[in-house]
Write a structure and sequence with these properties.
This protein is of the alpha+beta class and 191 residues long. The protein has three helices and ten strands. The longest helix has 27 residues, at 68-94.
Length: 191
């Protein structure tokens, strides 16, 4: 025969203990809204919003907590990455590149119609940038990127040294005069 019952939450009973002369508070049923933490929040408020615990490092949805093993793995990855980045300068020195100088910046150059290259820097400008009296083209490496693809819609292929100048080269020949913003990084290393 089935028993009819009513669930009552938030109730407790006190029973006197003659052994230790104290009232014992006994709860028979507890609801997450009835459990209160020291900060005044209920268990429902504090942990009820957590959808679950995941070991995935690709979960982008809010509400999931990371498993401790996942956090440990991520911490180990960050430590390894930091060690690798910390060794970068050491690695350069070990390879005999401790005398390297670097300059980076942006310049806007006018490019005339009918061209597929333009002078980024001449020999004298590079020598002045690095404060050098003498310079060899083999001591210089320049990397570039197009700083404004809307204003100059050509792909920059790279840099070529010719006629005592470093030229930015691009694939297509321009059909009109344009300005090109070039982001560059230049390395000097005496061989």
């Amino acid at each position: 025969m089935a028993v009819s019952e009513k669930k009552v939450t938030g109730k407790f009973y006190r029973i006197w203990s003659t052994a230790d002369k104290l009232w014992h508070r006994i709860s028979f049923w507890t609801h997450a809204n009835d459990v209160e933490f020291n900060d005044g929040k209920t268990a429902q408020t504090k942990v009820g919003a957590i959808k679950g615990i995941t070991t995935s490092t690709n979960t982008a949805e809010t509400g999931y907590a990371a498993d401790a093993t996942t956090v440990t793995t991520l911490n180990q990855s960050v430590t390894t990455l930091n060690q690798s980045l910390g060794n970068l300068k050491t690695d350069l020195n070990l390879n005999g590149l401790s005398n390297i100088k670097i300059d980076a910046g942006t310049v806007v150059k006018e490019v005339k119609s009918g061209n597929n290259s333009f002078v980024l820097f001449d020999f004298q400008q590079v020598a002045e940038i690095f404060g050098l009296q003498t310079l060899s083209a083999t001591d210089i490496v320049i990397l570039v990127s197009n700083g404004d693809g809307k204003a100059f819609p050509a792909h920059l292929e790279g840099v070529t040294f010719m006629n005592n100048s470093w030229y930015v080269v691009f694939k297509d020949t321009l059909q009109g005069d344009m300005n090109c913003r070039v982001q560059y990084i230049m390395f000097y290393c005496k061989h």
